[in-house]
Design goal:
- The structure is a single chain.
- The protein is of the alpha/beta class and about 350 residues long.
- Strands 1-2-3-5-4-6-7-8-9 form a 9-stranded mixed sheet, with helices on both faces.
- The chain contains 9 helices and 9 strands.
């Protein structure tokens, strides 16, 4: 993210966590020390002061050092590709995942997969984008699926979720770097991000926080690029998350009272920083993440000068059943164009 000319804090795309996949149990984490938040949005023309520690600007200033990608046991095999349990380092944490590797000498283009919300208490290694991972492996892509901190074999989330899951974005960024540093058969000059549902929000975060990290991005049925949309849909009205909503509001303030904070945790605030082409897939009958969210996001991306394509699927729901293969064929053509 180009921080000049920006202010704002916090990354609510963590809220994405509960978004678009069902309710989530409160983490029960202790409230972190409240950081001061500006009471009014800063002018976009004014250079940002020190950003809120839980914010997209703060994430953009981090040093990322994804490394140490290690293959574990082989967990699946077809005539065209193999899959392995893997781990890598994301800052001080070890993150687990799954890696699909095509048969042959390569080098192959690569994708990093950001899955949607699944309760970490029941999530298992590689869950959430199994179809996509297999499709990419079968079609000549190395595909690294990120479990995120606090999931499967990954280390626990040190913030207990109160970083609004901005840490998920950090894990995905470090996954790209670890994959590029791996001595396997990948072409590290051809790498893309692919996210679904909550993972679509994680991809938006990564694009604005680290322009130039990858060459293209694809999202399926993504959450809103406005943090307030996600809070009002998934957190505030959910009886099982009332304590989470109270902690968020106590720590960061109501959207109406602290607009700069909520703008700062919304990827759309920084769309002008995105340098990669983006493909969005969304079904018209999605009752988890309304298609209007993607229509608005696509319009704002275009206004910001981003090369964006929105593909809509009449009658398709959130999980993409009947149109899954069509969406992947379109994804393949998009990536072939932009990873050439």
């Amino acid at each position: 993210m180009r921080l000049l000319g920006r202010t704002v804090p916090v990354v609510l795309l963590a809220l994405l966590g509960a978004a678009c996949s069902g309710p989530e149990e409160p983490a029960g984490a202790p409230t972190p020390p409240a950081a001061s938040s500006p009471t009014t949005p800063a002018s976009p023309s004014v250079p940002a002061a020190v950003p809120h520690p839980v914010s997209l600007p703060a994430l953009a200033r981090k040093t990322f050092d994804g490394r140490g990608l290690r293959l574990g046991e082989e967990v699946a095999r077809t005539p065209r590709h193999r899959q392995y349990a893997v781990t890598w380092r994301s800052g001080d944490l070890t993150v687990s995942g799954r890696l699909a590797v095509p048969e042959g000498p390569g080098p192959f283009p690569a994708v990093v997969l950001a899955h949607g919300y699944i309760d970490p208490a029941v999530y298992v290694n590689g869950q959430g984008m199994t179809r996509e991972r297999a499709w990419f492996g079968e079609h000549g892509y190395v595909a690294l699926h990120v479990d995120y901190r606090g999931h499967a074999g990954s280390d626990p989330d040190p913030s207990d979720g109160l970083d609004m899951r901005l840490g998920y974005t950090e894990d995905v960024i470090n996954a790209v770097l670890a994959l590029r540093a791996w001595d396997g058969p990948i072409d590290d000059g051809r790498v893309a991000l692919v996210g679904r549902s909550m993972g679509g929000g994680v991809v938006y975060n990564a694009l604005v926080a680290q322009p130039g990290l990858v060459d293209a991005a694809v999202v399926f049925a993504p959450v809103s690029s406005d943090a307030v949309d996600n809070f009002e849909r998934w957190i505030r009205p959910n009886p099982g998350r009332r304590s989470v909503a109270r902690r968020i509001l106590r720590t960061y303030g109501e959207p109406s009272a602290q607009p700069a904070f909520w703008q700062g945790i919304s990827a759309r605030t920084y769309f002008a920083d995105i340098t990669e082409p983006v493909l969005i897939h969304h079904g018209t009958s999605d009752d988890s993440c309304p298609i209007r969210w993607s229509r608005t996001t696509a319009r704002l991306l275009e206004q910001a000068g981003v090369d964006v394509t929105l593909r809509t699927y009449p009658g398709e729901e959130h999980a993409f059943g009947p149109r899954f293969e069509l969406s992947m064929q379109r994804t393949g053509r998009f990536l072939a164009r932009h990873l050439s």
